[in-house]
Amino acid sequence: MTPWFWWHVTCMKKNTSRPDEPLRTYSAALESYLQHGDEAALHRAYEFGRRSLAERRSILDLVSIHNEAVRELASAAGSSAIRAEEVNKAGEFFAECISPFEMTHRAFGEANRALRALNEILEEQARVIGRDLHDQAGQLLAAVHIQLDEMSLELSAENQVKIREIKGHLDAVENQLRNLSHELRPTVLDDLGLCPALQSLSRRVAKRTGLRISPPVFEGPRLPMRVELALYRIVQEALNNVTKHARATSVRIRLRRSGHEALCAVEDNGVGFDPEAVQKNPESRGLGLLGISERLQAIQGKVRIQSAPGKGTKLRITIPLEG
């Protein structure tokens, strides 16, 4: 910049005080870079951005500080504009300032991709385990049933009664294994889609707990598999939360498609809770909300919790269908 510019800036500094510490710090570093173009000033820009990130300032906050600093420097020089060369250098300075935000954004994206890949691996393992439980364990139990039938032909009537009791226990084990295989990875989700899978899940939970559950009705083309799987797991966790904590008598599940988003809501009439208190207290996150948030985070989804003590709980889930 020209010498007269810095003479005016120096005069302004002698007569003007800035109570805004971030703006003052940023302006001083920007001024040094415009005047000298040194690496030390660029490092100060990076450190300012890093501190801003730690202090939870947004990029919009930095844009505002940058624009105000440029405006003040130009005004101090007695001009409403600065030269193209100076604009370019100010842009370089600002780019260095927001580089910590870019690095954090990339790291966040990489973490999301890793989490999404981990979820896919876990789901595939659950599918294999569920299939093995359903097929192999079912075949073994069927073989035991056949052998017991053959044994009972040679036993007394009293012992045949005991055999029937044993077979009754085996039937209970088979039902438990079948339910467990469905919980791990329901074949109806793969074959028929999300709505039939949620209806099946609702029937099983209602039968086990006595809850009155209104399952969703959904018309239209199937959602992407990653969305269907995420919503199924989220509703599954939500029903588990209701069963454990809500002391509710009824649950309503709704599902719809709105433009490029899938929307789902799970609402109960239970005791409710204070969402802010739960978020602030890590020991209270046994409600499963952390798991729901992490699963949604991996696919850029969001959850909004509406609840209050004595007023039930409502989860509103939004998942983009593209991206």
Please give a structural write-up.
With 323 residues, the protein is α+β, with helices and mostly antiparallel strands. It folds into three domains: 3-97, no CATH class; 114-185; 187-323, Histidine kinase-like ATPase, C-terminal domain (Heat Shock Protein 90, 2-Layer Sandwich), CATH 3.30.565.10. Helices cover 67% and strands 11% of the residues. The protein has helices spanning 3-15, 21-36, 39-54, 59-76, 84-97, 99-152, 157-184, 187-191, 194-209, 225-246, 275-280, 289-297; strands at 212-214, 250-258, 261-268, 302-307, 313-320. A five-stranded mixed beta sheet has the order 1-2-3-5-4, covered by helices on one side. Helix 2 (21-36) packs across helix 4 (59-76), helix 9 packs parallel to helix 10 and helix 10 (225-246) packs antiparallel against helix 12. The relative contact order is 0.07. The model is unreliable at 1-19 (pLDDT under 50).
Present the secondary structure layout:
Layout: H1 3-15, H2 21-36, H3 39-54, H4 59-76, H5 84-97, H6 99-152, H7 157-184, H8 187-191, H9 194-209, E1 212-214, H10 225-246, E2 250-258, E3 261-268, H11 275-280, H12 289-297, E4 302-307, E5 313-320
Parallel strand pairs: 1-2
Antiparallel strand pairs: 2-3, 3-5, 4-5
Coarse structural class: alpha+beta
Mean pLDDT rating? 81
Count of individual beta strands = 5
Order of helices and strands: HHHHHHHHHEHEEHHEE
Unreliable stretches: 1-19
How big a fraction of the residues is strand?
5-15%
Report the top-level CATH class of the largest domain.
Alpha Beta
**CATH second-level architecture of the largest domain:** 2-Layer Sandwich
CATH topology of the largest domain: Heat Shock Protein 90
Rounded to the nearest angstrom, the radius of gyration is: 31 Å
